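Example record

One chain of 228 residues, shown exactly as stored in the release files.
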Amino acid sequence: MKGSGMEWQRLEGLADYAATLQAMEARVAAISAGTAPEAVWLLEHPPLYTAGTSARVADLVDPGRFPVHVAGRGGQYTYHGPGQRVAYVMLDLNRRGRDVRQFVCALEDWVIRTLAEFNLRGERRAGRVGVWVVRPDKAPMPDGTPREDKIAAIGVKLRRWVSFHGIAINVEPDLSHFDGIVPCGIRGHGVTSLVDLGLPVTLDDVDEALKATFPLAFPQPARADLPA
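Predicted structure tokens for this chain:
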């Protein structure tokens, strides 16, 4: 799937985490060298936990449950597994603006726009990276504020201003698998998925929505922005 200098690739089956990370690092190096176009890889992993650079040992509640991988991305512990759409995003921020905060906001915006394709309102929360949905159907928090569940995680790394890692949207994973960690180090809130919210959405549906909304969150850089 190529177009406008962007390559989309969907990996079938369950992608081995270590092999995928190695392939992603090679692709980032090629993008940095100017020998490969920017890319988005859509995939699923077998059940596993990943530890970001800020991961706390105490947040790995059940260390023997699934394999644990050191990811090298920002953030803390997260879960990947079947039924979750992982999108690894390899973009050249030398062309798109060297602004890490803006890049993370654009990833959140991409997820929010994707969820809106299914009439679901995803929201940002200060101090909580990722995308959240309000759950008025659940008992409120002890302070009376509405309970919120996380539906998408975001974790990124940059090398020579080329991004890798990306987003993970819960479509229909086994939500009990999140019990082995404190997801992203955030306590007091839960985790949900599109299907858990009563939306009969498939990975194919999410892929189409991701591709449709990507240009809105990440406009193609003008030719004038390209390096000489």
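Notes: Residues 17-33 form the longest helix (17 residues).
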